[in-house]
Amino acid sequence: MSRSEYSKTRLRKPAWLKRRLPTGAAYEQVRALLKKSGLHTVCQEALCPNIWECFSRGTATFLIMGPNCTRACRFCAVGHGDPAPLDPLEPVHVAETVQAMGLTYVVITSVTRDDLPDGGAAVFARTIQEIRDHVARARVEVLIPDFQGNREALNTVMHARPAILNHNVETVPRLYPRVRPGADYLRSLEILRWAMAEHPSIPTKSGLMLGLGESKPEVEKIFHDLLNAGCQVLTLGQYLQPSTGQVPVERYVPPEEFDKWRDKALDMGFRAVASGPFVRSSYRAEALCAKARGAGRITADRSWETGR
């Protein structure tokens, strides 16, 4: 489908996807600090709808290994093309910025770097270690690419002992050729299965976008697949078309349907679930990690998951 065809099929956003943006000095402070550091965040590169809230709360999700991805997923606003050479000082710069922001819980993700033999696994590991060297009590969550199924690369990351390992399946297998043409659903499940089998003390997490044309039975099948792979934490959010260059939204899922999916997932056995139109992989990540490492189910106020 061409760019012009995408633009013709855009749906009007419903009322529940409109919310008041936070105001205050904290947002500008975080934005200025990140600009000064020269670092990238997925909040900015992926046009995340939660950027105002997260920056205003003094948090951000760091995007390492540059802003250009070697793949071109058709749902993502992150740039793609020839990646820049790795910056050997980037792990130190991330750690220094984490320290300056006063963070004790950090989420690190990356572009996909299929040009690197280990997919960038060593950079993840070094970044985790540098953060711990600068902030001894910091916990680091990583949202990793599939490393092209490289088990040794996965172990490099896991041996660095992240607080939780996140790898998103993103959508149902039927939609992969249209939405994630460079990815493989079974390979993503294997990443999660290997991580849990070899490092069972580290919780695993995955995420799914709704509104791309998936059916309810397909979503339930993914729940089963993730649980069978040992996944304990799940995020569900509304897909939002970043620009006319990405696939259009097929449906806006109402908040009450997200509530039902959350309850369904918890009943099936997930330890922690965040489900709502504005939920993204790293949104309120610390709370989900704490629940994954604890016992029971999330019973706290759920309004933050829906923007209501």
Overview of this structure, please?
With 308 residues, the chain is α/β, with parallel strands linked by helices. The protein has two domains: 21-162, no CATH class; 167-308, Transcription Regulator spoIIAA (2-Layer Sandwich). Helix content is 38%, strand content 13%. The chain contains twelve helices and ten strands. It has an eight-stranded mixed beta sheet, with helices on both faces. Helix 5 packs parallel to helix 6, helix 6 runs parallel beside helix 7 (151-158) and helix 7 (151-158) packs across helix 9 (185-198).
In terms of topology, how is this protein built?
Blueprint: H1 3-8, H2 25-37, E1 40-41, H3 42-45, H4 51-56, E2 61-64, E3 68-69, E4 79-80, H5 90-101, E5 105-110, H6 121-134, E6 139-143, H7 151-158, E7 164-166, H8 176-179, H9 185-198, E8 204-210, H10 216-228, E9 233-238, H11 255-268, E10 272-275, H12 285-293
Parallel strand pairs: 2-5, 3-4, 5-6, 6-7, 7-8, 8-9, 9-10
Antiparallel strand pairs: 1-2
Helix pairs in contact: 2-5, 5-6, 6-7, 7-9
